[in-house]
Amino acid sequence: MVVHFAFLFHIYQPPVQIPPVIKQIVNESYKPIMYALNSHPQAKITLNINGTLTEQLYDFGYEDLIKSINVLASRGQIEFTGSGKFHPLLPLIPEPEIKRQIKLNNETNHHFFGKFYNPRGFFPPEMAISEEVIDTVKKLGFNWIILSGIANTLPEFPTSFISQHRNGLNLIFRDDYISIDCAFDKINNIDSFISRLYYKHTSEDYYVILAMDGETFGHHVKHAINNFLIPLFESVPHRNDIKICTISEIVERFPKGTRQTPRASSWSTMPYDIAHDVPFPLWFDPKNEIHREQHRFFMYALTLIHLSAKYRESMDEERKRIFDNARNLLDRGIHSCSQWWASKRPWYSSDMILRGLNEVLMASVNAKRSIPDNIPDIKEAIELIMKDMLKAQNKIVLTL
To answer: Percentage of the chain with pLDDT > 70?
Structure first.
């Protein structure tokens, strides 16, 4: 009997992150992880890197890190996943925006990683899923999607077969318990890790999926690379009872099984959230006034952008430039961090909330400015929307 296991590391920084923080995380986490992989040719991971982070690495001079990731991908030690470029919570935005974020992510990462960026699987930011997200991911040609274990609705947890959605998309469920214990330093040596992998008393092969923020290793848990990850990479090739894989290798290795409709959830959703019908509690809790107004604010901004977009062809070059800037600002502004920092479960930051609002507000103002003067009815409609939008913003600011 062999336990096949895969690590998915998710690395991301918000587009409003400050350079000193990027530098710290690069030096504490990203570079040491890549060095650990490079030093152990049989080690491999599945990696999600959102396009906004890829761009930041390039802009801040970390081309060597991008090259290192690409070399490891060329060797088969890194398997990429698709995602949303600016890390929005996909179930909270309409389908055209979901598609746009995924396509932007593909374009950016293809630009920097070339032919080695060819993702078969999909990582939804925060593992936040809904039926609309799953259907969109399938339409865009992905083979599998990773979900939190709490999303599973079968009476048994898939470990010896690959469950599928009704649309045929392969569903990969994270082992939440082992993943969380790794992330919070409760599993920090090889013996305890392997002991946890062997939680099933069976003679059949099975698999375990571990998924967590890549920043866990070296940044959040300072000793996790030297004391856990590197010893694990050194040990695995000499063992016959466990096998490290990419997620796609596990999808290929195990048979397809029961179809299901997963429950809407994220990797931060708890059973009591499900019981209270709050699938995305850190980003949209109906009892959280800031969350309600943030969502209203974002929806107004999306409406302004889509209204303006209808008139792009009639804009002169200067107005097109203004509109394109508005579109880019909104893409950036709907990243999930401003909502996360408003959740107070347990973290809170008025600065991060305002940074997100600021980009969305700038997007809206530029969308308004881009409308040609000969369309007064639309200008008037946009002004009415902006008045309601500013009421939402005012409520948020007064609540901080």
So the answer is: 100
Is 257 in contact with 164 (CB distance < 8 Å)? yes
By the 8 A CB rule, do 174 and 149 touch?
yes
The SS3 call for residue 138 is helix
- Which of residues 275, 297, 318 is at a domain's end? 275
Where does residue 163 fall: left (phi above 0), alpha (psi -120 to 50 degrees), or beta otherwise? beta
Q: The dihedral of CA 211, 213, 218, 222: what is its sign?
A: negative
Same-domain check for residues 204 and 266: yes
Same domain, 16 and 50: yes
Integer-rounded Cα radius of gyration of the chain: 22
C-alpha 341, offset from chain centre: 16
Structure tokens at 45: 């991971």
On whether the CB atoms of residues 273 and 281 are closer than 8 A, the answer is yes
> Mapping DSSP to helix (H, G, I), strand (E, B) and coil, where does residue 78 land?
strand
Residue 102 domain boundaries:
3-275
Alpha-carbon span 179 to 266, nearest angstrom: 14
Q: What distance in Å separates the CA atoms of residue 184 and residue 272, rounded to the nearest whole number?
A: 21
With beta carbons less than 8 A apart as the criterion, state whether 283 and 291 touch. yes
339: number of Cβ within 10 Å: 27
Let me know whether 270 and 293 are in one domain.
no
- Structural domain count, the chain: 2
Spatial distance between the Cα atoms of 354 and 394, rounded to a whole number of angstroms: 11
Q: How far apart are CA 34 and CA 188, in angstroms?
A: 19
* Tens-place pLDDT, residues 265-309: 999 999 999 999 999 999 999 999 999 999 999 999 999 999 999
Q: Closest by alpha carbon to 113, among 61, 58, 32?
A: 58
Same domain, yes or no: 268 and 293: no
What are the strands, taking DSSP E only, across the chain? 3-11, 45-49, 78-82, 121-122, 144-147, 162-164, 170-173, 206-213, 242-245, 256-259
HSE at residue 193, side-chain half, CA atoms within 13 A, is 26
Longest dimension (CA), the chain: 74
The residue to which tokens 């918000």 are assigned: 14
Give the whole-angstrom CA distance, residue 235 versus residue 251: 24
Length, in residues, of the chain:
400
Q: Can you tell me the distance from the alpha carbon of 265 to that of 283, in angstroms, rounded to the nearest whole number?
A: 11
Q: Determine the pLDDT at residue 42.
A: 97
- Which amino acid would we find at residue 48? N
